[in-house]
Amino acid sequence: MKKILLSLGVIAVVAIVGVGATRAYFSDTVTSTGNTFTTGTLDLKVTNQDDPLVVHITRTNLKPSASFTTNLGGQWVIKNTGSVPGTVTVTIKNLKDHENGCIDPEAEAGDTTCDVGDDQGELGRGLINRVIWGLNQAPWGSLTPSFTKLSDAVGVPVTGAKYHLDPGQSVNAILSLYWDTSVNDNKGQGDSVDFDIEFTLDQDLPV
Description:
Elements: H1 2-22, E1 44-46, H2 68-71, E2 74-80, E3 86-98, H3 104-108, H4 123-127, E4 130-135, E5 141-142, H5 150-153, E6 164-165, E7 170-178, E8 192-203
Antiparallel strand pairs: 1-2, 2-7, 3-6, 3-8, 4-5, 4-7
């Protein structure tokens, strides 16, 4: 008799488990289809060109205290043609400070670096004594840091809020180079400098 009751108990448990497994409640299902994720773009154009940029500044017949508009400086239109906001950084690189030999006024002024090497001229090492990046548009103003020698600017990134670009936005980036008169001006006669400018657009970080 005990064995029979035990068997009936096992059957009852199995029956309860079976009912629990097959019982249904109300339910409703909604499926979202066609989900996609697409990256944005960050694309910098300078004077409507990509890299390598062939637009460059050339100034000749420089002299101390000359008018900025006629002798010094350069301007580039920088534009974010992508869909992501970013900020532009400008960096002067690969400076070559040419002496180009010495004429009499240079030698008489005490110029002793009269060879033709790339690092013996005086323009980049002090005669150009104010190097400033800024905007040639409102809001007017300079970026920091500025430099008292062109050679000091080499490899130093310059950026700031004035160079922030929303998608489709452009600004007029301007490089101002000033040669204020000094007792060493004659040492710069016939000298020249050339350098590269690197423009970089970086995505703005979340704040």
